[in-house]
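Ops channel
N.P.: pipeline sanity check, posting one input/output pair.
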C-alpha cells in the first residue's frame, strides 16, 4: 500500500472516529506489544464504546485540523495511540484504560493530553475527569434536587389544616 493511500486511510478512519465523539486522548504506546494493543482495543470497545487508533501524529492532526478537536496539537509528540470516546460516560472509558494499565503493569504508557468540550486537559487533570459523574448521574441528581421540594409542597398541601385538627379534637 502506498504511503499516500495509507495516509488517506488513516485520515478517513480518524474522521469516522470523530463522529459522535465526546472525548479524545492520546496514550504513549511505546513498549506495548501488538497483542496488548489488540487486547486494549477490544476491552475499550466492549466496555465503553471507545475506539483505539494507532497512527502517526501528523496524520491524526491533519484530520483534526479545522475541527473542535484541533486544540490537541500540543499533545502530538512521541509515539501515541489515540482513544476516541464515543459515549457520554467518559469516566468509564478512562477507568477501563487505567485498570488495563494496572493489570498489565504498564506504568510507562500514561495518558497524554485530552480534549473535552473543546478544552485541552493535561495529564494532571485526568483525576478530575475520571471522577466526574456521568451525564445520567447528573440528571439523576438534578431530578432528585427538583423532586424533593415538589414532594414537600404536595405533602404540605395535602396535610390537614390546623382548623380541621381543632374541630376533630
Amino acid at each position: 500500500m502506498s504511503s499516500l493511500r495509507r495516509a488517506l486511510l488513516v485520515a478517513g478512519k480518524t474522521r469516522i472516529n470523530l463522529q459522535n465523539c465526546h472525548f479524545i486522548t492520546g496514550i504513549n504506546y511505546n513498549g506495548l506489544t501488538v497483542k496488548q494493543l489488540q487486547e486494549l482495543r477490544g476491552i475499550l470497545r466492549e466496555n465503553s464504546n471507545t475506539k483505539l487508533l494507532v497512527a502517526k501524529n501528523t496524520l491524526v492532526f491533519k484530520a483534526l485540523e479545522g475541527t473542535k478537536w484541533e486544540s490537541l496539537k500540543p499533545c502530538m509528540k512521541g509515539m501515541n495511540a489515540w482513544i476516541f470516546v464515543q459515549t457520554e460516560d467518559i469516566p468509564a472509558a478512562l477507568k477501563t484504560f487505567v485498570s488495563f494499565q494496572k493489570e498489565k503493569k504498564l506504568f510507562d504508557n500514561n495518558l497524554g493530553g485530552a480534549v473535552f468540550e473543546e478544552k485541552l486537559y493535561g495529564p494532571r487533570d485526568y483525576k478530575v475527569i475520571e471522577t466526574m459523574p456521568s451525564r445520567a448521574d447528573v440528571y439523576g441528581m438534578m431530578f432528585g434536587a427538583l423532586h424533593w421540594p415538589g414532594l414537600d409542597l404536595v405533602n404540605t398541601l395535602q396535610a390537614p389544616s390546623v382548623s380541621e385538627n381543632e374541630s376533630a379534637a
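N.P.: looks fine end to end. The chain has a mean pLDDT of 82.
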